[in-house]
Specification:
homodimer; Alpha/beta knot; six-stranded parallel sheet
Chain lengths: 247, 247
């Protein structure tokens, strides 16, 4: 049971089944399961809805329909409205990133709805009046009209990110420690001398360039093993036909 | 000129014109203009591409096509690959949020490409090998397959957010200062006594509940003006027919 299970996405007066399907997939990507449709006004292309939902068919099939926005959010203590319009009673909007932690906290104690209006005109003033919080997605002022499923995705992404549930892949190889990196540098110094990349009297200077390259990022033990292998093979090649240093 | 102008989105082997159109819109939402197609494999439904691009037709029309990924990124100092697959050479992935500030810094000095693979199988190992950085979008482990345009949107959103270019709407009314809020509380105390909501001996206690309500959020001057208006009108109503306190 995740705190996200207490959050539902409410689509109000949605027009296009294609958007509905893409909303389902976006929700599944971000661990959200509960979808409500309030007074849907859909074009009836359910085949497209299913196709765009891809493997998120369960979200699509488990949707709950309500005849009005009021009914859809009746059980919710927190009702978040999303808006791109401004106006006297829409000035106190927050971004999804600002609001997400508070919404998760509230979802731990009661039901939270996040509502998205019609593709062509969003939520009405009456619907905004039912909301306890208002969200506005930060977009470029040159092009503010965002697709419905894209808007849902961004809000869902901020909620999912705020849970901290995402686990980045763990590198199987540990970061290499200093002693091993110094050993690597020594091996490269010897190899570079033997293959004739540099002469002894220039070696200190040249090795600073190599060290700069080696210090561009954190190397793993595996990275160091690969570079040590290069040094060993270079030395072998030099012993079996290396060239004299160029002047 | 925004630093985002030095970033281009590269779609590799894209199959569906619908996705292409939605990518254009998502890019425009987040202030990105430069789109490259590398070895596109499109279904040819350009009408759908234009319809889904909505008002982002300029992004669609200004796309540049290349016969290979290598050609598409040839001029870029930084090439970011996106991947959902894991594997020995994909372990050092970062999230878009982690990487965005560094990418903007690098875009100030040279061209940056952010590449997205085929809808069905992503970027190949050969293409990953051309990348200087790898990105992985944090998604729920239950459903990791994300739509192409949704993936582009999230990466573009993190880049746009990291620019700090988004300006939240400014409330026209300042936050109310303490003196004005105390005046409001006094007016409500008088009004609540006069309309018979409470008796004088209970007033201190009752007013703590009212003050708790008033302290739930930051009120603006406009908010306080509305609540002062309620107090004035209540007192007027009481003077013209108020009731005695109930016991």
């Amino acid at each position: 049971m995740s705190v996200l299970d207490n959050i539902k996405i409410v689509l109000v007066g949605t027009l296009y089944c294609g958007n509905l399907g893409q909303v389902c997939r976006a929700m599944a990507n971000m661990g959200l399961k509960n979808l409500a449709l309030a007074a849907p006004n859909l074009d009836g292309d359910w085949e497209l809805a299913e196709r765009f939902a891809v493997h998120a068919q369960d979200v699509l099939r488990n949707r709950v329909e309500f005849s009005s926005f009021r009914d859809a959010v009746a059980e919710c203590a927190v009702v978040v409205g999303t808006t791109v319009r401004s106006g006297l009673y829409r000035q106190h909007v927050k971004t999804p990133r600002e609001l997400a932690p508070a919404l998760l906290e509230m979802a731990a104690h009661g039901k939270v709805a996040v509502a998205f209006g019609r593709e062509d005109k969003g939520l009405t003033n009456e619907e905004i009046a039912c909301c306890t919080h208002l969200l506005r997605i930060p977009v470029d002022t040159g092009y503010e009209s965002i697709n419905l499923s894209q808007a849902v995705l961004l809000c869902a992404y901020e909620l999912f990110s705020a849970t901290g549930e995402y686990q980045p892949p763990i590198e199987k190889s540990d970061p290499a420690v200093a002693a091993r990196k110094l050993q690597l540098t020594d091996m490269w110094r010897n190899m570079l001398l033997e293959i004739g990349f540099m002469k002894e009297d220039k070696a200190d200077h040249m090795m600073q360039g190599i060290q700069r390259i080696f210090s561009r990022g954190v190397y793993s033990d595996d990275d160091v093993s690969i570079l040590m292998g290069v040094a060993r093979q270079g030395q072998w090649a030099a012993a079996n036909g290396g060239k004299e240093p160029k002047d």
